[in-house]
């Protein structure tokens, strides 16, 4: 309960700050920064402030690192942490929280995971509140405003489903500050909830077109398709993304002074993470020179030209066994983060064709033709190798965008592969052995919710 109230207070506070910014009289008033008067939100400006707050919270819960917020500055998001549990990144840090994640042995009291979990839940609650406020207090809002909030809620739910064990609470919040606690939802139930929210968003958007309406519609379509693919409904997923332009993108934008791109900050700037190069026997080599995942090695000419001043990972004791591989996909602190994209839509269609016996390679090769330096693929000749190739393509196209952990779990859950043939395994580079986690535990702080049963959280089950 206490954790949920902190999330609700943070959601209302971010909206209260934005609402105050809309009022010229606010410069003359002194208010308690810890108290948000609900009446402030019961206006068109207040409702829109909640909407903008939801977008801001989701941008920080995914690719952003807010330098001005003491609660979120230098707190990993699940985008990075999920890549650490999977095979995209290694821990270049000395902090046990990152090392245990890299080693697939995450504790429920892991503070980094707790902060990242709260950030997603905060964005979800804020979107939920904003949709209610817009409908009630801002009936003349743009037609895409409420659908945008349903997208944000659906997207947050997909992330929670992909990253955490199959027992995730999604408590409800009301504008009066009341909370309805939730027992944990299974992965399937959470994904079905995301589909329902995406459906509602699309229904509310209707036939509205142009500008932001088109961007919101395509974001809803891709998120719906992602959820359906996780539900092992590839044909429905492909139908969901029909009409999404390959060039489409719903991105969050950052800047040079306040909110940095987190992948640039934690990898390139701080050396807390390093790009994986064939981790734990099963991991892909993301440093192989593929044009979609540009990298450099700390201290080389390419890194220096990119403005990377570090030569080694932060953990100097292990720099000999963990080279500092720097990602250049997000090459600066203000590089946008693509939450959804048309590329993902095409990859969903390719997987659906593979599952149905269709021409999946044509879809992949059409995508590859848009990227200089890539040559056409050929059929590897057997079913297992085709799945390997498809998931490799997904890994390189979607690198650093928070998809890889969900894909590894799907290989176990949908393609009946053993977890130890998919996830990094064996001897861990900093000592000891890899654990058995294939998902994150719901943080210990959630046990304040009396309806939540932590014993139902099994992190070794995909």
TrEMBL record:
Signal peptide: 1-19
Keywords from the UniProt entry: Signal
Polar residues biased stretches: 445-462
Cross-referenced InterPro entries: TPR-like_helical_dom_sf
Presence of keyword Signal: yes
Segments of this protein annotated with the region Disordered: 441-462
Name of this chain's protein: SusD family protein
Native species: Roseisolibacter agri
